[in-house]
Amino acid sequence: MLRPRSITGHLRLYALALTFPILLASSFIGWAYLRQEGQRINSLAERQAQAVALQIDSRLAAFQATLNVFSASPTLLEGDMDDFRSRPEQTDHPSDVWFTVRDENGQQLLNTTAPRGARLPAFLGRGDPVIFTEGRSYTSDLIWAPVTNQWAVTLSVPVRVPAVTGKVRFALTTGVPAAYFRKPLEDVPQGWIAAINDREGKILARSTAHDQSVGKPMARSGWEITKDVPPGQGGLWQDVYTLEGTKVVGAYHRMASTGWLIGVSALPEVYEAPRRNIIGIGLTLLWMALLLALALASLMGQRITKAINVLQAKAAAMRDMKVIDVSRTSLDEVNTVAAIMRNTAQILRKRQDQQTILIQELNHRVKNTLATIQAISRMTIRNSHDMAAFEQAFSARLLALSSTHNLLTESAWSGVELRELLTKELEPFRGGPHLLLSGPAVTLTSKVAIALGMAIHEMATNATKHGAFRAGGGSVRISWSVSDGNLTLKWQERCGHPIVPPSRQGFGSRLIRQTIVRELQGTVDMIYNNNGLQATFTIHLSVDDNIKDQAEAGVDMEPV
């Protein structure tokens, strides 16, 4: 089921949105095509109407020429109708065409369809004033011929006696059956309908259903459009219906010679074909575009969703500090983000491991510090005569321990320079004596720095009580060197008074041996000369900070 908020759903909506301008463009193209096809159909209708009019004019002109020749016949001018009758019968003309001669009273003097000697009826024609009064030729509308019993049209010319300059004595007429005019309509293409209508709007000939249509009035809608159109002009008609009620479109033209109306119209199978074609093609293309767009949107949505799932897996792994490898996706951007997340997970994992190590190290150091403080307090109180002496000694040793811790904190417990450590620890004792420091740059680990810092503090405290720092004039020289990973530090005092070696090992000496020998696996060598104490400390600089903490090792500061 399509979820509107899913990637695939958004892509499908986007695909549908893209088809909208395509639909608009297709509609415009279809409209232009239909307009062009409409113009083509109208143009074809106009040409067909004019072509039919030309053919009819040509046929009528041929009859007109024949009548003009006959009208100058001497036998006709003399009124010898029996002799004149042989003339039309000898000419080459359609067999269903006939000729008549009437006088100005309408009496037929000759009718080629009637037997010789037959009594002929008299009638006045609608065109008689034109023929006898104006002396011009006349083409009738559709009439019912009583002698031949068929629909027909007549062409009449005046016959002057004498010829040309005389009075009009007769009307020479040829009768043409309406079916004769159907032949020019046979050239109309399939799917079209053509009709010839007389001046009164009666159907004279029709390309389809001719026999059933002749003599009937043309369709009312067409008559209303064309009844006032002057001869020689035409136009287009839309929404016109045939006698059968079929809606047609086409063109009309009123002949200049006869005033007849030629109508040529396209049936729905012709003028609706372009619309059906464009609608069919348009719908097919639209459905194909929609299906293709939706299929591509679904395919791309699946690929993007698969890539997003990879990122989700990577994000979950990064949340859990795990590093996982997944297959590459088809999207370079997702692959780049996945690689970044993998690297980030590795970095976070390393930081977590480092943090764990730091917490463990901090825990060890806190335990070691507390064990050291506990041992210092226990031994200090054991060697103090009263609380005031304990407070003074214990506070001094805590300050020494604190000074070393401050230096380590400033370096993030990465190590302390030996010279900096000595300067810091001996700073409270530099008021009087002269202090000399000499040696190369040496970086001490945190464990070595703490232990050595406590030892130096005890040496300075001892020098304050009994040695070089006791009175003015004394000096202390501290020198060191490094060889094969071992630090050798020498403490040499020069006193201004003789010193007396101690009769027993005090707390300071035990603390020094405890930190240097037991904690750092080093050596301590102390020599009491008359002019001052000389001490040599040998320490392994490679002592690991992560060795078992003092609390677990059982630090008790007892004599060794």
UniProtKB/TrEMBL annotation:
<dbReference type="InterPro" id="IPR011102">
    <property type="entry name" value="Sig_transdc_His_kinase_HWE"/>
</dbReference>
<feature type="domain" description="Signal transduction histidine kinase HWE region">
    <location>
        <begin position="361"/>
        <end position="441"/>
    </location>
</feature>
<keyword id="KW-0812">Transmembrane</keyword>
<protein>
    <recommendedName>
        <fullName>histidine kinase</fullName>
        <ecNumber>2.7.13.3</ecNumber>
    </recommendedName>
</protein>
<keyword id="KW-0418">Kinase</keyword>
<dbReference type="Pfam" id="PF07536">
    <property type="entry name" value="HWE_HK"/>
</dbReference>
<keyword id="KW-0547">Nucleotide-binding</keyword>
<dbReference type="GO" id="GO:0004673">
    <property type="term" value="F:protein histidine kinase activity"/>
</dbReference>
<keyword id="KW-0808">Transferase</keyword>
<keyword id="KW-1133">Transmembrane helix</keyword>
<keyword id="KW-0472">Membrane</keyword>
<keyword id="KW-0067">ATP-binding</keyword>
<dbReference type="GO" id="GO:0005524">
    <property type="term" value="F:ATP binding"/>
</dbReference>
<feature type="transmembrane region" description="Helical">
    <location>
        <begin position="278"/>
        <end position="299"/>
    </location>
</feature>
<dbReference type="InterPro" id="IPR036890">
    <property type="entry name" value="HATPase_C_sf"/>
</dbReference>
<feature type="transmembrane region" description="Helical">
    <location>
        <begin position="12"/>
        <end position="34"/>
    </location>
</feature>
<keyword id="KW-0597">Phosphoprotein</keyword>
